[in-house]
Structure to design on (406 residues):
DNA sequence: TTGACAAGTAAACGACAGTTTACTACTATA
DNA sequence: TATAGTAGTAAACTGTCGTTTACTTGTCAA
């Protein structure tokens, strides 16, 4: 059962993501649900409260998701060195692609990302939040990857900061560019190719 | 001599880039110049006209810049194969970095990029414009690079679409991330490292 | 010196913003 | 069946929006 409060949140998010917070009126939000703007105030104390609730909701969702994706870290341990490396890399790849699908295809996450994009220059907190979500989502696990790479790529040498950039930037860019494309799976395919290319170049 | 009309344009751009078009009031713009909002209408027919003038102005600037950077294309021609490749690559690198500095450090270009970023989801035209500026700026010359690479990297095989992504994405990402950083030269340094890394991996 | 023009101000305009208020209908519980 | 409480409406409130109008300057050419 979708409560009205919930529906308001979602309708508002959709509008904020397209037009930006200031450009969306309370009447517009209420109109999406076929009611009048006064009714909003039965559920939220003001417009800003809706925005803040969206941010809280995303935080909850993210925690939930992080719990599901919790890295076992110990499930695989004693195998041959190569097969260990390979399964580790496969996991990183699967995780990266899952994250990409989430931030481009999941309606809530995708809208949330766009909303933050539109507010990022007005508010340092929001700029931080945006980077935190996008980066921590992929990078934290990417750091594991980089550690693996550094461990196994015996020639050593490669700057891990650069490696992280090389790995993450194409994913980041495709995330932004997928917004203008209907078939998100095309973008997923590009990301997959990129990751293959990257991992190949690490051998 | 900076005309008032010019000053209005610049003040408006700065505000649009931070808050988005709708969130900026005519009073705010006029206030930046110490005058009242009515005065704006002596120079522009309405608020939208200011926005459109900014876009036109950027177009002029871009053409001007393209003229300066016009690729000679014939200046160097008959040398040894390696030295030809090396100077070609050096030129691409210099161009990419110049473009990066332009879009992050030049006040007008940087603000313009942010402004388009904030309007991209409301208007398909603007989304196209944003991609056109960022991509055509680096990519057109990058395609030359890719042609060079394809020609000289005799093993062939590498998907040029992926190569373009690998080359451009880190530049694109650093462009966006530099907005949150005071010292843009740090970002330039990262970009330089990336290009070196990329070109090294192409040998 | 005069008169046209350019560039500003202050005030008014209607529209709409976010918010509050008074009221109505429905639902569930005692 | 009476009564609270919930969730909606319509209207009013105050303020600001973008824009227009009427008026005041200062400048500069005839």
């Amino acid at each position: 059962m979708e409560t009205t409060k919930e529906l308001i949140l979602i309708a508002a998010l959709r509008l904020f993501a397209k037009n930006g917070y200031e450009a969306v009126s309370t009447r517009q939000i209420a109109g999406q649900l076929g009611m009048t703007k006064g009714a909003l105030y039965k559920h939220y104390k003001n417009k800003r409260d809706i925005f803040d609730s969206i941010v809280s909701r995303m935080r909850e969702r993210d925690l939930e998701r992080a719990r599901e994706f919790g890295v076992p870290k110990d499930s695989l341990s004693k195998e041959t060195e190569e097969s260990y490396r390979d399964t580790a890399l496969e996991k990183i790849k699967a995780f990266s692609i899952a994250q990409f699908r989430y931030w481009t295809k999941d309606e809530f996450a995708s809208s949330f990302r766009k909303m933050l994009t539109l507010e990022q220059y007005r508010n340092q907190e929001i700029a931080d939040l945006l980077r935190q979500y996008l980066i921590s989502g992929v990078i934290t696990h990417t750091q594991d990857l980089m550690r693996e790479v550094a461990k196994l790529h015996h020639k050593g040498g490669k700057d891990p900061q650069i490696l992280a950039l090389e790995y993450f930037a194409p994913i980041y860019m495709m995330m932004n560019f997928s917004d203008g494309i209907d078939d998100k799976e095309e973008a997923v395919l590009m990301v997959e190719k990129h990751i293959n290319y990257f991992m190949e170049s690490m051998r």
In short: The helical segments of chain B are 4-19, 26-32, 47-68, 81-105, 107-119, 124-152, 160-177, 184-200. The radius of gyration of chain B is 20 Å. The CA atoms of residues 97 and 189 of chain B lie 9 Å apart. Chain B has two domains: 1-53, 70-201.
